[in-house]
Write a structure and sequence with these properties.
By secondary structure, this protein is mainly beta. The chain contains no helices and 33 strands. The strands form 3 sheets. It has an 8-stranded antiparallel beta barrel. Strands 18-19-20-21-22-23-24-25 form an 8-stranded antiparallel beta barrel. The protein is globular, with a radius of gyration of 21 Å.
Length: about 575
């Protein structure tokens, strides 16, 4: 029997068979809305020129069996500035294409960039073609989704595009990492950790790992496992391999491919035959919290396996003592705000090996509890933060906190946006949703429209909705804390509205959670730099993807509309 045997895929509308072209977004089968003219931010095909690390993960469908699976794609593409692409990618997709490393991206691949920085592309590989939709924030960086919903290629997911630099083995002395996906049974799996490396050989000299497998962490002995072997070895300045060994009978030996963004940031994807699907980020590890105010965004599910997103801000010192926290959460469509939460790190050697166990009080996942997180501070390219994974038995939350260096984002300005989460049709069907958008924010008073642009949606339940009009308001809190709300009262997407709570990390990078009744998601929006100018400073967030529920789990709260609490 296939160990990935998933629950039956439901809720997808039957798609008319259409020819797949490089302008695939013109074949949308979503709301049928008219395409909105893009804002003019000066972008063009020439804005994507050079070699970039590309990373996506999410959900696709085996159309022969009509079943959902988790996939991850990581690698490099070289764009010629004229619409042509070549490259090499790793594809970990056991349920559809298989686990295939080092696949060539052929010269028949292509891309196109609109004047607002949104673009489309097609990656042609021996294992199939993958259509993508993206928003550039500069010529060095962008946000990306998979945008497939026709023929035999059906899938959606989110990730990043980053101009590739190089790193030497000697520049990697200590790394903190966060990887997410599913285990061999198709259940959600997240791994965080930190390792110290021999700067000559890449051998791991010490380290710690934490796992949360399907919401089970503390009771399964997955916390604080010593890393007893392995390495992070760069075979060139741009790629390499990694392996981690610990005493766990379930995840004691895992291997990965490594793709270099720069000496402070690596992308990692599992390459072994265990049928796990894990991918994520590694950053330079730190041994103390960034003192001051932190903003955070976490995604996952609660103890009932209902989708959950939470975000907010909190004050910390270098030892990880938290106070004066404000948290917004959306638990299966029920949104609320709690204030005054705090926490502290394990009092005995709180940062031994760059890790601490962070115990929170007054925090909620829809219900108050004694939540505990494994916390690993990190830095990357001038920004700093803390990778976090829930390690109690109240569910699974994964994400990051970031040092806040500004309490408002730059306006007027253009922004690129990515959202990733789950939505429902209100009748019990649930599926992944991913958005790419570009909008212009003005300084107009919040009572008036001060946010306009275009949004592209790929929803498992609703299909493709490209170029829909994005029009609404952003309203900062009355106190300058970096928190605010975005209200889009009507939009031609699957659920028809978009309501976000946002948290400013710096003047160019903003985190958010979706607080709609029928959608639970997390994401980021980033200020766009004028093409050719210096890129804006971004916080290099570890993108939080929706954690799928265990195959057999029931939805106790996100139920049909008539039975909702």
């Amino acid at each position: 029997m296939n160990p990935l045997a998933p629950y039956k895929f439901v809720g997808r509308l039957l798609m008319a068979l259409v020819a797949l072209t490089s302008m695939f977004w013109m074949t949308a089968c979503g709301s049928g809305s008219s395409i909105t003219p893009p804002n003019n931010e000066g972008f063009s095909d020439g804005s994507l020129t050079g070699t970039y690390v590309i990373s996506m993960s999410g959900t696709d469908v085996n159309t022969a069996s009509d079943e959902e699976f988790t996939f991850a794609i990581v690698g490099t593409i070289t764009a010629d500035g004229k619409g042509g692409i070549t490259g090499t990618v790793d594809i970990n997709d056991p349920g559809v294409t298989g686990v295939n490393m080092g696949q060539a991206v052929s010269s028949s691949s292509s891309y196109s960039v609109k004047q607002d920085g949104r673009g489309t592309g097609k990656l042609v590989t021996p294992k199939g073609s993958f259509n993508v939709d993206f928003a550039l924030s500069s010529t060095n960086h962008g946000l990306i989704t998979r945008f497939d919903d026709v023929g035999t290629s059906v899938g959606t997911g989110s990730g990043t595009i980053d101009m590739q630099s190089t790193a030497t083995q000697g520049s990697l002395s200590a790394l903190a990492f966060s990887l997410s996906g599913v285990d061999s049974g198709g259940n959600p799996l997240v791994m965080v950790g930190g390792v110290a490396l021999n700067t000559t050989t890449g051998a791991i000299t010490s380290g710690t790992q934490d796992f949360n497998d399907s919401g089970s962490s503390a009771e399964s002995g997955f916390n604080g496992l010593p890393v007893t072997g392995g390495s992070v070895f760069l075979s060139s300045g741009t790629s390499g391999t990694a392996s981690f060994t610990n005493s766990s009978a379930s995840f004691g030996s895992l291997s990965f491919d490594v793709w270099v963004i720069d000496s402070t940031h690596l992308k990692i994807i599992e390459n072994d035959d265990t049928l796990n699907v894990l991918s994520g980020d590694a950053f330079t590890q730190q041994t103390s919290f960034p003192a001051g105010q932190l903003v955070f965004a976490l995604g996952g599910f609660d103890s009932s396996f209902d989708p959950l997103a939470t975000g907010g801000f909190v004050t910390t010192d270098a030892n990880g003592t938290l106070s004066n926290g404000t948290e917004d959460y959306n638990d299966a469509g029920s949104a609320n705000t709690v204030t005054g939460f705090g926490g502290s790190c394990n009092a005995t050697a709180p940062f031994a090996g760059g890790r601490c166990e962070l115990a929170l009080s007054g925090f909620s996942n829809g219900a108050l509890g004694s939540f505990v997180f494994a916390a690993y501070p990190y830095s990357s390219d001038g920004s700093s933060g803390v990778l976090m994974l829930e390690i109690d038995n109240f569910g699974l939350m994964q994400g990051s906190a970031y040092a806040q260096t500004a309490t408002s984002f730059t306006a007027p300005a253009g922004f690129g946006l990515n959202l990733s989460g789950e939505n429902t049709d209100g009748q019990g069907d649930v599926g992944e949703v991913d958005n790419i958008a570009q909008f212009n924010a003005t300084t107009t008073a919040p009572s008036a429209i001060n946010l306009t642009g275009s949004l592209d949606e790929n929803s498992i339940l609703g299909g493709l909705d490209p170029g829909v009009s994005l029009s609404g308001t952003y309203t900062p809190d009355s106190t300058p804390d970096g928190r605010g709300s975005i209200t889009i009262p009507s939009i031609s997407t699957f659920i028809g509205t978009l309501n976000l709570e946002y948290y400013v990390a710096n003047s160019s990078t903003v985190l958010f959670i979706d607080v709609d009744q029928d959608q639970v998601a997390v994401g980021t929006f980033e200020a766009q730099s004028t093409p050719g100018a210096g890129a804006a400073m971004h916080a290099h967030p570890a993108i939080v993807h929706p954690a799928v529920r265990p195959r057999a789990a029931k939805q106790s709260k996100w139920a049909p509309a008539g039975s909702r609490k």
